[in-house]
Amino acid sequence: MKAIYLANEGGAESLVAGEILQPNPSAGQVLVKVHATAIMPTEVHWIPTFQTRSGGPRPFPVVLGHEFSGVVAGTGPNVSSFQDGEEVFGLNDWFTNGSQAEYCVADETGLARKPKSLNHAEAAVVPISALTAWQGLFEKANLQRGQHVLIHGAAGSVGTFAVQLARWRGARVIATASAGNLDFVRALGADQVIDYRKTRFEDVICDAEVVFDPVGGETLERSWKVLKPGGRVVTVATTSAQSGEARVRDAFMIVRADGSQLAQIAGMIDAGELRVFLQQTFELAEAREAYARAGRGSMRGKVALRVIE
């Protein structure tokens, strides 16, 4: 099958185009004919990209891109939820080859039927960001109706979903963003927006039950000051995972694949309750350009790769 992959350890500039063996689904897995996949520019720095689950080196070629949208092309034993030809979207195992190829395999439990209102490129940019916001707000932080939540990076790929989901839950949403994104974030449902370049959020917020942080660093350190007693911080910034501070490690979470949650998210999208933002779509052969665009930031929504029409 055609694929974009890394033949040795390196960054996105080392991606090459070629042909590799098509994967076969094992028990409980689905073979997906990939129509589109999303770009995560930090993936080349993740441990699972070049290491196995047991800590050894992963074999090359390594295919990036673990969120995708496509069509079921086959199933392994004991798969009962999906049939050949169904349109699906989802997230596959970080330690396996991803979806920047004509086919990928994913656990049945990591898939859901694609939102009918989205095309494949739009659907492909949903799983990681939407699931991160869902699991961070509703599982890790246990956000409840009427609570105050401060969401950093509210115009980013995760933040846009976090604002909308928190509003849907009935929380009071306070969001930080740059000046050019304040109206955009208000339109997503934020009750109060703070230009983080002009105002220190801890100077105006002191009663948050939850802080949701995709930024990390100094932003996270300052966030503890705004909590009510018993308040909760959730951080998804990768720099927090190795922190020497116990409370930061405890606040850190990594998203997991969850098809049932994706199905709920798909229903919300089709009902018009959740908006999806796709910044730009590139062809598979333009993967290096796509990573360069995603790495520059300053965009609403994510970058997708179109694998097949």
Provide a quick synopsis of the model.
The chain has 309 residues and is an alpha/beta fold. Helix content is 25%, strand content 27%. The protein folds into 2 domains: 156 residues, Alpha-Beta Complex (Quinone Oxidoreductase, Chain A, domain 1), CATH 3.90.180.10; 123 residues, NAD(P)-binding Rossmann-like Domain (Rossmann fold), CATH 3.40.50.
Order of helices and strands: EEEHEEEEHHEHEHEEHEHHEHE
Number of distinct helices: 9
Beta content comes to 25-35%
Shape: globular
Q: What structural class do you assign from the helix and strand content?
A: alpha/beta
The number of distinct structural domains comes to: 2
Overall pLDDT score: 95
CATH topology of the largest domain: Quinone Oxidoreductase, Chain A, domain 1
Give the terminus-to-terminus CA distance.
Answer: 16 Å
Give the radius of gyration: 19 Å
Highest-level CATH class of the largest domain: Alpha Beta
Proper CATH architecture of the largest domain: Alpha-Beta Complex
Number of DSSP strand runs: 14
CATH superfamily of the largest domain: Medium-chain alcohol dehydrogenases, catalytic domain
For the largest beta-sheet, the strand count, sense and barrel status come to:
7 strands, mixed
